[in-house]
Amino acid sequence: MKKWMYSLVAIPVLLFGCGGEEPEVDTLDNGVMPVEVVVEIQTPEHLNVNETIQLAARVTQGDEAVDDAEEVKFEVWESGLREDGQMIDGKLTEDGVYAVDYTFDQDGVYYMFAHTTARGLHVMPKQELVVGNPDMSKVLEDGSSSSMDHGAGHDENKDSEKKDNH
């Protein structure tokens, strides 16, 4: 009878003890969740053509400037031309600010992601940049999300057609 009882206890241990381990969550050494990394784009939204400006973002965690980000890259593309975009490395300039000089050579509406990896977290805010005096009737909407839209975008009209056809 004791052997039978031990068998009943052993089965749950075998079933649950070995198979599904809890996923690891990045925590600090003291077991506390890390404080959010915040990326604030500092590039003005309205810019002039053929003027050298800075693509810039300030990275903080809590009240502390992050001067040790693993990566800050600025992805820039003209409206409707995401596949022709550029990835440009930002460099630490001061107190958590990462920047790079850039010049837009024609009027247009552009979009910029500040891809930031710091302290084990990835953040990528997005900003629209209006350069010069673009013809707004030719501007294509490149996603409605202000951040975290990492994919290559999609055609909302095609998506709605698919829904209508099914």
What does this structure look like?
The chain is α+β, with helices and mostly antiparallel strands and 166 residues long. The chain has a domain at 37-143: Immunoglobulin-like. The protein is built from two helices and eleven strands, in the order αβββββββββββα. The chain has helices at residues 2-17, 156-165; strands spanning 37-41, 46-47, 52-61, 64-65, 71-78, 86-89, 91-94, 97-103, 108-118, 121-123, 126-131. Strands 2, 5, 6, 9, 10 and 11 form a six-stranded mixed sheet that branches. 16% of the residues are buried.
Write the layout of secondary structure elements.
Blueprint: H1 2-17, E1 37-41, E2 46-47, E3 52-61, E4 64-65, E5 71-78, E6 86-89, E7 91-94, E8 97-103, E9 108-118, E10 121-123, E11 126-131, H2 156-165
